[in-house]
Amino acid sequence: MNSKSLPYISLLALIFGSTLVVSRFSVGQFASLTYVSLRLLLASLCHILIYAISSGRAWPRDRQVWRYTPVVGILGTAIPMSFIVASLQYQSSGITSLLLTAAPAFTVVLAHFFLPDERLNGRKIFGVALAISGAGALVLQGESGLPDVQEANPLGYILVLSGIFAGSISTIYARRNLRDVDAFDVASVRMWTAVAVMLPIAYFVTGLDLSQVMPSGYAALLYAGLIGSFGGMLLEFNIIQRYGATATAMTANLIPIVALIGGWLFLGEQITAGMIIAMVAIMGGVTIITRSETTHISSPIES
C-alpha cells in the first residue's frame, strides 16, 4: 500500500466513523426511517448538483447502469442504511462499527459460491474464521456499549447482521453486472434509487415527523448527509482512482477506532475489554482477507 494514501484513508475513516456517532445521536431526535430518507435526499441532491455544474460529466445514459444499479441502490444502500441506523437505538456506535467491520468476511464467502474467479483459499478461510469469531464473541458477550443498558437487545445485532448480508449480496450482484461502467454514475443512480424507495416508506410509516428535532439534530443530519454520505463517497472514489481498491479497503480497520473513541467522548458510550479483544480479532481477519482480495468490498457505512 502506498504510504501517500494514509492521510486520505485516515480522513475517510474519520468521516465514516464519525457519521456512525452522529447517527447514534440523531436517532434520539428523528425516527430512524425519517433520518435515513432525509440523509439520502441530501446526498442525492449533491449528486444532481455535480452533474448540473460539471462540464466534463454527462448525465448517466448507460443502459447497463440503469438496468442493474437500482438493485444495488435497494440492497446495498436503502436496506443496509435503514437497518444499521435502526440498530443504533439498541446499541452503541462502537458496537455497530465493530460488527460492520466484519462485512468483508460475509462477502468473500458469498463470492466463493457466486463468482467463479473469487474462490476461497486457505488464507481467506482463516481470515473469515477470525473475523466472524470476533463478531460472534461480541454477540455471545451481549455487549451493547451503552452505559445504562445491562444486557444488549438481540434486535440490534440482528439488524446490523441483516444489513451486512443485504450489502454483501449487493456487492456480489454489482461485481457480476457492473464491472466496466463509470463508478460515479453507479453511485449516483444507486443513491437516487435509495431515496426514491425510502422517502415514501418513511412518509407512510412515520409521517416524516420533525416536531422533536432540535437545531443540533438538523446539524447532525446535514453532517451525515453532506459529509458522511456524499463527501465520503467522493473521497472514496478519489482514493480508488489514485491508490486502488486495496488501499480503500484498509479504511475498515480504522473506522471502529474512530467510532469507539467518538462514542466514548461525545455520547458516553462504553469501551470494554471484550470489545477490544473482538476488535483485534475482526481487524486481523479482515486484514488477512483484504491482502488476498483484489475486488473492492464495500461496506454499508459508505452510503
What brief labels describe this structure?
single chain; 303 residues; mainly alpha; 12 helices; 74% helix; globular
Main sheet makeup: none
Low-confidence segments, ≥5 residues, pLDDT <50? none
Order of helices and strands: HHHHHHHHHHHH
Structural class: mainly alpha
Number of strands: 0
Mean of pLDDT: 90
- Share of helical residues: over 70%
- Over the alpha carbons, how many angstroms does the gyration radius reach? 18 Å
Strand content is under 5%
Number of helices: 12
Quick one: overall form?
Answer: globular
Q: What is the end-to-end distance?
A: 24 Å
Report a brief summary of the structure.
The protein is mostly helical and 303 residues long. The chain has helices at 6-26, 32-53, 63-87, 93-101, 103-114, 122-141, 154-177, 183-206, 215-243, 245-249, 255-267, 273-291.
Helices and strands, with pairings:
Layout: H1 6-26, H2 32-53, H3 63-87, H4 93-101, H5 103-114, H6 122-141, H7 154-177, H8 183-206, H9 215-243, H10 245-249, H11 255-267, H12 273-291
Q: Describe it for me?
A:
This protein is mainly alpha-helical. It is 74% helix and 0% strand. The chain contains twelve helices and no strands. It is globular, with a radius of gyration of 18 Å. The two termini are 24 Å apart.
